Amino acid sequence: MKLIKQNVARLTLPVGKSDHIVFDDALPGFGLRLRAGGKRAWVVQYRVGSKQRRVTLGNFEALDADVARKAAKEILAKAQLGSDPQTEKAEYRAGAAVTLGAVTKRYLELRAKPSLKARSYEEVSRHLTRHWAPLKELPIQRIQRATVAARLGEIAKENGKFAANRARASLSTVFTWAMGEGLVDTNPVIGTNRATSEIKRDRVLTDAELRAVWQACRDDDHGRIVRLLILTAQRREEVGGMAWTEVNAETELWSIPRERTKNGRPHDVPLSAESLALFQAAPPRDGRPLVFGDGQGGFQGWSKAKAALDRRIAESGATVRPWRLHDLRRTAATHMGDLGILPHVIEALLNHISGHKAGVAGIYNRATYASEKREALATWARNVAALMSSAAPANSVALGTHG
Fold first, then answer.
1. What pLDDT is recorded for position 297?
2. What is the dihedral of CA 163, 169, 170, 171, to 10 degrees?
3. Given 86, 110, 129, which residue is the final one in a domain?
4. Could you please report the per-residue DSSP string of 382-401?
5. Which of 121, 270, 286, 289 has a 20 to 30 Å separation from 393 between CA atoms?
6. Count of CA atoms in the C-beta half-sphere (13 A) of 65
7. How many of the other CB atoms lie within 10 Å of CB of 180?
């Protein structure tokens, strides 16, 4: 019997049997499996050496007879050429179970402390679990370059071009690791375009720009963070992840543990009266050890908060050329130099391990420049205050010579 729609409709399970296969006369190996309860499924049967294999093509109700026959022909042809379609199907299913989300979870578990510093781990984890979340259910072996490129475009639009670059680097690292684990053969991130070129920045805000940024800050977490970035010259993640226990109000000192610094060295930041006031103005959240933010980890939503800040600056009528939060660190360091603060003191404030600190200054401990650092930040805070009031003191310098 040739298994066509009209003939198959009349087939019934032989008396006394609960499972029976009716094979097609025109295409040996192609058949319809009948089971008790009325279930019917298309199958194809073939041999690999001395072993017999059987592959289920699909349910009778869901798969047309002609489509099933065509699929059976392809499988039988592969078997004739020495392949084993049943094994290929099993491998496909196994590969489909290894999703990007599962691989990412395993990668992050292996890269948790002490493999990655807390700050680096938090950033990589954020990119992988948040920015690449739309792809987490996809089998990692099926992710193509076009899929990665399309998602990078979405990330750039939603979170900014630099965020897209960081997300791209994080995903590429995962695929490189997965290749070493034998989970994938290629890295689909390779060959995709960066959202923007990564060039060394030298952006320093002018006095007018710095004033516009300061005045556009609101009395909220992001506003206090931005002002602290200006006053302390520390990194965004260090301020955004500040813990209440890190600040000693009596000694006016902020002690950042090694786990939260970029170079893995503990760092003490003297707090000017203005900086301490910003810290103390942050409302404590019950049971939350961190000063800023309200979710897991430190402050989140950097891109949206920065975009809102830029809109307020524009609405105020001020003109500020494109800038990033990290530019505030460079701005503060540059102008402290203009104020006559010595390079090794500025490097100590920035917690740098290059230049002076890597050389002669590198032999001293973290408290060596404590008084110099405190005086430097106090001087800088006075000049910032004067800039905001547009009444510079006699010992201040103009901040607009580097724009």
1. 84
2. 110
3. 86
4. HHHHHHHHT---TT---S-T
5. 270
6. 14
7. 9
Spatial separation of the C-alpha atoms in residues 309 and 218, rounded to whole Å: 9
Instruction: Classify residue 190: in a domain, yes or no.
Output: no
Q: What is the CA radius of gyration of the chain?
A: 32
Q: Is the pTM of this model over 0.70?
A: no
pLDDT of residue 354: 52
* Residue 56 domain flag: yes
Domain span at residue 384 reads: 207-389
- For the chain, the domain total comes to 3
User: Over the range 330-369, which residues count as b (16 or more CB within 10 Å of their CB) and which as e?
Assistant: bbbbbbbeebebeebbbbbbbbbeeebbeeebeeeeeeeb
Length of the chain: 403
User: Token pair of 243, please?
Assistant: 């813990």
148 Cβ contact list (under 8 Å, min separation 6): 168, 171, 188, 189, 192
Count Cβ atoms below 10 Å from residue 189 Cβ, excluding itself: 21
Give me the helices (H) in 127-160, please. 145-159
Beta-strand pair 247-248/51-59: unpaired
Where residue 292 sits, what CATH number does that domain have? 1.10.443.10
Between CA 157 and CA 166, with CA 161 as vertex, the angle to 5 degrees is 120
Domain-located, residue 302: yes
Cα–Cα nearest to 70, from 42, 33, 48: 42
